[in-house]
Amino acid sequence: MHPPHQDLADVVTHLADYVQYEMEEGATSTQADPNVVSQLSRCQTCPPPALQSAPTPAPAPVSASASRKVQHAGNGTLEDIANRIASCQGCPLHESRTRTVPGQGASRPELIFIGEGPGASEDEQGLSFVGRAGQLLTKIIEAMGMTRDEVWIGNIVKCRPPGNRVPLPEEMEACLPYLREQLRLLQPKVIVCLGATAVKGLLDIRTGITKLRGQWMSFENIDVMPTYHPAYLLRNPNMKKPVWEDMQEVLRRLGRPIPKQKK
Q1: 187, part of any domain
Q2: Residue 154 pairs with which residues in a beta bridge?
Q3: Per-residue pLDDT tens for 187-210?
Q4: Would you say residue 48 lies in a domain?
Q5: What does the alpha-carbon distance between residue 175 and residue 171 come to, in Å, rounded to a whole number?
Q6: Is residue 195 part of a domain?
Q7: Taking a C-beta distance cutoff of 8 angstroms, is the pair 163, 28 a contact?
Q8: CB of 133 within 8 A of CB of 38?
Q9: E strands of the chain, at which residues?
Q10: Are the CB atoms for 61 and 95 separated by under 8 Å?
């Protein structure tokens, strides 16, 4: 059993990591997880750990080849979609964006990951999942025995919502036709929806992700696996195990071997 002060140190470390992520993404406020608050309240008598500010991590690497595949796949058809996204003014999100984020990856992937919307790093670079949550997604993909070049990664909305707020229904509705076009061209075997907003936007299901994760669903005859968003794992690292269980189901559905995890 870990000593009480070590438990507190772990809680504070995870909390600090998540706050750092929120700051990098441009959020001006956040919500405390009730479980974390409960743990902190039980450790009031524990000596506080020494905290050191960690350097801002470099964005997760995204190869130039992956970006080129998006721009030139499908005889220019995906490029045409990206160009239309770049000039889109279908909802108010275009007013505050720096760059649109159409998505990137393999031109005919077996597996696609769909998130909520771009964050600050994505808005700056025009690429999906390149911030701290993107680094964790990269680790998940690699743990599955794959690389980012082999999959395709996108979001429900193609422009960053101000302050990283949840996209509004009308914003998701305006962007969904682009995603539908992309999915029909990409023809994946499996879609992984990262978080409740991705499930709501793609499948119009409003049930919480805790109840949905791990259950197979379908979108236009494509198998869909809902799971937790990597950003959620940053503040709830104990949920990494359920996500890995979901990814094992994805690998089984794809007919791929399940790599052994390092201890």
Answers
A1: yes
A2: 114
A3: 999 999 999 999 999 999 999 999
A4: no
A5: 6
A6: yes
A7: yes
A8: no
A9: 104-105, 111-115, 152-155, 190-194, 217-219, 222-227
A10: no
**Sign of the C-alpha dihedral computed for residues 108, 221, 213 and 167 taken in this order:** positive
pLDDT-based confidence at residue 63 (cuts at 50, 70, 90): very low
Pick 256 or 55 by higher pLDDT. Answer: 256
**pTM for this entry:** 0.74
Does a structural domain hold residue 8?
A: no
pLDDT tens digits for range 85-123? 999 999 999 999 999 999 999 999 999 999 999 999 999
pLDDT above 70 coverage of the chain, percent: 71
Per the structure, the count of domains in the chain is 1
Structural domain of 233: 64-254
Among 120, 110, 115, CA closest to 137: 115
SS3 string, 90-132, reads: CCHHHHCCCCCCCCEECCCCCEEEEECCCCHHHHHHCCCCCCH
Angle at which helices 132-143 and 4-24 cross, to 10°? 110
Provide the CB-side half-sphere exposure for 10 (13 A, CA).
Answer: 10
Instruction: Return the structure tokens found at 14.
Output: 């995870």
Nearest to 119, CA basis, from 197, 180, 181: 197
CATH number for 123: 3.40.470.10
